[in-house]
Design a protein that fits this description.
Elements: E1 22-24, E2 31-33, H1 34-40, H2 46-51, H3 60-72, E3 75-77, E4 84-86, H4 106-120, E5 130-132, E6 136-138, E7 143-144, E8 147-148, H5 149-156, H6 160-171, H7 180-184, H8 186-192, H9 196-220, H10 234-275, H11 291-299, H12 304-326
Antiparallel strand pairs: 1-2, 3-4, 5-6, 7-8
Helix pairs in contact: 5-6, 5-11, 8-9, 8-12, 9-10, 9-12
């Protein structure tokens, strides 16, 4: 049996130890712990299968010298491809394999594992990339329309696992997706995601299209008896129907295009930051604190303050509409 001392399991990236139960892929020869192989349901080195190539052992002598050098320079060597990375980087800048996850935020790492498991049902970091849509994968260095996936991840923040797959589709000129939160609370959602122009338009549109239904409700409840005569007016009935249609049409449009509009905003603002020389350094994780990452992170993310402002503004403007109607 071949000697796999110094080599690592393709699935979990852990070095093999004496006495480990090792199995290899009959097609490409990639080595696994038996339990890892069973967990994966087969070999995950599909790229080797497609190219008709075989697994190549890492030169352990060269790797040991690299690791010694890495320790001296505070770097980490990827045990999958041998690439030397920053000691603070949780992922390999070359192949995307996890190399130092304890340096990343624990909650963020758990989110990646949990969300990825729920979304795809596949093991975390299959084939050294994040599985999306079955066979499609990406790493932090994947280019998405001029910006990297890592830059978008830093920009989006906590809910990156939801947005990055959609951003990949948008980069291929597919603009349609559906955001349920934007459909239910359009103006609140846009303000929460710091999309101020869209939020203002949706706030105004929501209030204007809800005026007839608000009047109808207050008249029916007896708060505006002086206006009860308009309920029988054909003009009011037509306005009521049209405004109701526009009310839901606006919500539907927000739900369908909110993610794409957010992608455009992210793409535009990241590009501006990069023009100022504040681009993510190669191999940097978007979870690490640095001036470069913080510039992108500050531009994106969410804002509870904007959310509260939108909620208060909606209540005040709606109240003003009612007061005007009562005069």
């Amino acid at each position: 049996m071949p000697n796999y001392q110094g080599q690592s399991c393709v699935s979990c990236s852990s070095p093999f130890k004496d006495g480990d139960d090792i199995v290899v892929c009959p097609q490409c020869g990639s080595p696994y712990h038996r339990e890892c192989y069973k967990k994966e349901g087969g070999c995950i080195n599909t790229s080797l299968h497609e190219q008709g190539e075989g697994w190549t052992p890492i030169d352990t002598k060269n790797q040991e010298s690299c690791e010694d050098s890495a320790k001296a320079h505070k770097t980490a060597v990827c045990r999958v491809c041998g690439q030397e990375n920053s000691a603070e980087a949780p992922f390999c800048s070359k192949c995307g394999a996890p190399i130092n996850m304890e340096k990343a935020s624990g909650s963020f790492y758990e989110q990646m594992k949990n969300e990825n498991g729920r979304q795809s049902g596949q093991p975390f970091f299959t084939d050294f990339g994040i599985p999306l849509f079955g066979s499609e994968r990406y790493t932090l260095e994947t280019d998405l329309d001029g910006n990297t996936a890592g830059e978008y991840t830093s920009y989006v923040g906590n809910n990156w696992i939801y947005f990055i797959p959609k951003f990949m589709r948008f980069a291929k000129r597919n603009r349609v997706s559906f955001n349920f939160s934007a459909f239910i609370f359009p103006h609140l959602y846009f303000f929460y995601r710091k999309m101020i122009p869209e939020g203002v338009l949706m706030l105004i549109g929501t209030i204007l299209t809800s005026i007839p239904s608000t009047l109808f409700t207050f008249i029916e409840m007896g708060y505006l008896p002086s206006l009860s005569y308009i309920l029988d007016s054909p003009l009011f009935q037509n306005i009521y129907l049209i405004s109701s249609f526009l009310f839901y049409a606006l919500r539907l449009a927000a739900g369908v295009f909110a993610n794409w509009l957010y992608y455009r905003k992210a793409k535009r603002e990241i590009a501006k930051i990069k023009e100022k020389g504040q681009v993510l350094a190669a191999g940097d994780s978007p979870m690490l604190s640095s001036p470069k990452n913080e510039a992108i992170r500050a531009a994106g993310g969410t804002s509870v303050i904007y959310l509260a402002f939108a909620a208060v503004a909606y209540m005040i403007l709606s109240l003003l509409v009612i007061l005007v109607a009562m005069l």
